[in-house]
Amino acid sequence: MERLDPAEVDRAIAGLDWTREGDELVKIAARGDFAGALAFVNAVGALAEHANHHPDIDIRWNTVTLHLSTHSAGGLTANDFALAAKIQQLYGA
Amino acid sequence: MERLDPAEVDRAIAGLDWTREGDELVKIAARGDFAGALAFVNAVGALAEHANHHPDIDIRWNTVTLHLSTHSAGGLTANDFALAAKIQQLYGA
Fold first, then answer.
1. ipTM, interface predicted TM-score of the complex
2. Taking CB atoms and an 8 Å limit, are B56 and A54 in contact across chains?
3. Counting beta carbons within 10 angstroms of the beta carbon of residue A11, is it exposed (0 to 12), middle (13 to 18) or buried (19 or more)?
4. Is B2 left (phi over 0), alpha (psi -120 to 50) or beta?
5. Cβ contact (<8 Å) for B35 and A49?
6. Residue B21 Cα, gap to closest chain A Cα (Å)
7. For the segment A41-54, what is each residue's pLDDT rounded down to a tens digit?
8. How far apart, in whole angstroms, are the C-alpha atoms of residue B21 and residue B23?
9. Which of A24, A68, B27, B86 has the fewest C-beta atoms lying within 10 Å of its C-beta?
10. Each residue of A13-65: pLDDT tens digit?
11. Is the dihedral of CA A50, A89, A65, A24 positive or negative?
12. Alpha-carbon distances, residue B32 vs A58, B46, B64, B86 (angstroms)
């Protein structure tokens, strides 16, 4: 999987409700409480396992922060954007 | 819940397989893979909900890092050590 160039990254992120921080895609998702956050993490985890691609996941009570990157490629690849799009469906448009 | 003084913290941490970083208890638990890490997080989450006390949880594929503190007390309390001890039982002595 090849690292996308900056123009490809710009195009790919245009339709996504994620932000870019350096070589990572970042999403902060707040739920109603810890149980909601944990349910979200499990749903993300199922997608990650299916894709065999795993975001870094930080849980702060009701808030989940996800960081996606392809370390083996040294940056963002189509895999990151594909998983980000699937995760986005979990929390709605 | 009152913040413990340094001598109380030293006594409380003596029997625990956690480290102290400033005003936090820290545990790094590695599992075999992401699924194992997520199962551990769910077990920790059930204990946290029961105690109504929630660690910060960071997942990096197969590795889970937990940070425990009582922010409302400005430091470590008996609640932190009680939950740390319960979590310790999850990963064994």
1. 0.95
2. no
3. exposed
4. beta
5. yes
6. 18
7. 999 999 999 999 99
8. 6
9. B86
10. 998 999 999 999 999 999 999 999 999 999 999 999 999 999 999 999 999 99
11. positive
12. 19, 21, 11, 21
Hey, what are A87's tokens? 């995760």
Q: What is the pTM of this model?
A: 0.95
- A48 vs B contacts (CB less than 8 Å): 34
Instruction: Please name the member of A35, A57, A60 whose beta carbon is closest to the beta carbon of B49.
Output: A35
- Which residues of chain A make contact with B61, given a CB cutoff of 8 A? 54
Contact A48 B34 (CB under 8 A): yes
SS3 A82: helix
Identity of residue B10: D
User: CA torsion, points B11, B13, B19, B24, in degrees to nearest 10?
Assistant: -90
